[in-house]
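Show me any protein, fold above all:
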Amino acid sequence: MRIDDSDRRLLRHLMAAPDASTAELAARAGMTEATCWRRLDKLRNAGILRGQQGVINWRALGWQVEVSLRITLDKTNPRAFDEFVAAARHVPEVLEIQSFLGRVDVRLNVIARDMAHYQQIYRDRILTLPHISDLEALMHLSDIKSEESLPI
């Protein structure tokens, strides 16, 4: 689907104020509420706008540790990737699973309440995941840039 300048303007305002009502978005984007509604619906149906969600600050809820685990899988087993991912999905503290081409096959983003909790997760849940050949842990220190919006 091709989007025009009005769609881009609407998406920019939606990214800037995701909790704005359709009437507020329409006013900010310089269009009628009906036009705004139709354009948002068109963007949803095309898969460009996948939805709106609440973003929870998990640190404010007491989760203080974030670790990125870069994992290389045993490539001698043809089911290694599927079995690893299926098992990793069941670890509640894994917020994100990404796959890669190259030496690293998978990256897990893991959170924990503190270092003792992370050690428990690591020993009891991560190290028991199937087909791990190599694992590198990167402790998250700070967010330097974390952008949710696109330059449209």
Q: What stands out?
A: The mean pLDDT is 94. Helices lie at 5-16, 22-29, 33-45, 80-88, 115-126. The CA atoms of residues 112 and 119 lie 9 Å apart. The longest strand covers residues 65-73.
